[in-house]
Structure formats: C-alpha cells, structure tokens
Amino acid sequence: xxxxxxxxxxxxxxxxxxxxxxxxxxxxxxxxxxxxxxxxxxxxxxxxxxxxxxxxxxxxxxxxxxxxxxxxxxxxxxxxxxxxxxxxxxxxxxxxxxxxxxxxxxxxxxxxxxxxxxxxxxxxxxxxxxxxxxxxxxxxxxxxxxxxxxxxxxxxxxxxxxxxxxxxxxxxxx
Length: 174
Prior knowledge:
Layout: E1 22-27, E2 33-43, E3 54-64, E4 84-86, H1 89-92, E5 97-101, E6 115-117, E7 122-124, E8 130-131, E9 139-140, E10 143-144, H2 146-154, E11 159-160, E12 163-164, H3 167-172
Parallel strand pairs: 4-10, 6-9
Antiparallel strand pairs: 1-2, 1-5, 2-3, 3-4, 6-7, 7-8, 11-12
C-alpha cells in the first residue's frame, strides 16, 4: 500500500547509519530546503532515549534554495522545532539526506535539553533526569515519526514565543 503524500520531498534514500554531527537536508514542496543535525546517534541505553536505536535531532529555521546549508545558521538559537527523538526511517525513505558531517562542539548543543514525559507529568533532560521546571525549547519524551516532522514543518506558521509549538501545546490551546 503506498504511503500518503507528504510535504517533504523524497531526496535520496540511504542505508548508511546516521552519526552524531551529520547535517541533513529536507526538501520542501517549493524546491527549497530546511536542515537538521544529528545530536545523538543510535541511542541504546534506557535513559538515553525513549526507544532503543533512537536519534536525537535538531531542525533549524534556516531555509535555502541549495541543498547545502550555511553552517553558521545551524546553531541552537535558530531551531525551528524543539529537540526531537526519531528513528532511522526518514533517512532510509529519503526524506532526510545527509549533506555534511561536522564533529559536534559544546556550542552546537543546547545548554539544557528538556523533554515532557506525559505519563508521570514531568519535565526531564536527555538522560531522563527530572527537571524542576520547563526549559525552552522543550520537546516530548517520545519517538516522533518523519510524518510528525512533516506535519510540524507544515504548520510552521503557528509559532509562539519564537518556537514552533508542540502538538501537546497546539491541542491544549484550541
């Protein structure tokens, strides 16, 4: 059965395992690109990610007519979405195409990661340690699909306080 259409274009499917520091392009319907970066790769420890084999990624606001980003724009201050855990599917289906690899530095990462864990109703860091309060940008402690990223990129017009609001926030704000 064919997949439902997406707003992301298929670029180049790959079986190569993404690595921390990989920069990837996502093709938009108008022919332009937005970019992301792998912050944590193939996370297997129970407290590293919501599911074994997850990847922690950032998606940036930077948009370009070229599939090669201006790397100076790929900084935490320019995130389009809060940090996201995802599986390898967007690379294997070709929605994410690796375009570069640059080793991560401290300046490439947020000073504090924050994720909402719905079941206990708490905020946690990337190691599932409880946080006393929300630290923006705050993602969800769960595995997102490329379809969710496609939906979030499609509703980028719904930005609150400079951050794309999460599905949780969107559903509670009417």
